[in-house]
């Protein structure tokens, strides 16, 4: 469980960083003249928490050490991203009138969530692949040292 919690923390900070970039891009596109106060810095942290809740749920409910099948993994990821999009759009746009600007902005947010989600998974995969290569190399070295004994 400690390893899963460590992964969750790592993913949280990756998500927050990418949300900062997404907010910059969306802000420059949809509201280039808008100026914010310091309170705006809390939003990436909140959105990052919302975006990492599916992973946190898996930390505390993932009692099985068995890896999911590829199909189970894809379904789990698809459901996670749909929940994240739905929750974020609800938080951001609840109570606002439905007009062309808000629909366009909501679409931009949804696309940015998909991009951030894909980027987080790609970055995580790269980090995990690097770790796996290092472990494999260390294991080969260990086997070579012990084969000569």
Characterise this structure.
This protein has four helices and no strands. The protein has helices at 2-30, 42-61, 70-93, 100-147.
Low-confidence stretches: none
What value does the average pLDDT take? 88
User: Largest sheet, if any?
Assistant: none
H-E string: HHHH
Q: Give the beta-strand count.
A: 0
Beta percentage is under 5%
Tell me the distance between the termini: 36 Å
Helix- and strand-based class? mainly alpha
Q: What integer value in Å does the Rg equal?
A: 20 Å
Question: Share of helix among residues?
Answer: over 70%
What sort of overall outline do the alpha carbons produce when their principal axes are compared?
A: elongated
Contiguous helical run count: 4
Q: Could you give a quick summary of the protein structure above?
A:
With 149 residues, this protein is mainly alpha-helical. The chain has four helices and no strands.
């Amino acid at each position: 469980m400690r390893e899963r919690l460590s992964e969750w923390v790592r993913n949280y900070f990756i998500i927050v960083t990418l949300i900062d970039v997404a907010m910059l891009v969306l802000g420059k596109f949809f509201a280039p003249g808008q100026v914010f106060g310091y309170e705006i810095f809390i939003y990436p942290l909140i959105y990052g928490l919302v975006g990492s809740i599916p992973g946190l749920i898996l930390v505390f409910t993932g009692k099985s050490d068995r890896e999911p099948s590829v199909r189970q993994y894809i379904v789990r990821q698809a459901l996670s991203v749909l929940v994240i999009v739905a929750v974020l759009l609800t938080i951001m746009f609840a109570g606002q009138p439905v007009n062309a600007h808000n629909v366009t902005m909501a679409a931009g947010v949804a696309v940015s969530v998909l991009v951030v989600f894909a980027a987080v998974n790609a970055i995580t995969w790269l980090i995990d692949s690097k770790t796996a290569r290092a472990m494999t190399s260390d294991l080969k070295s260990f086997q070579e040292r012990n084969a000569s004994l």
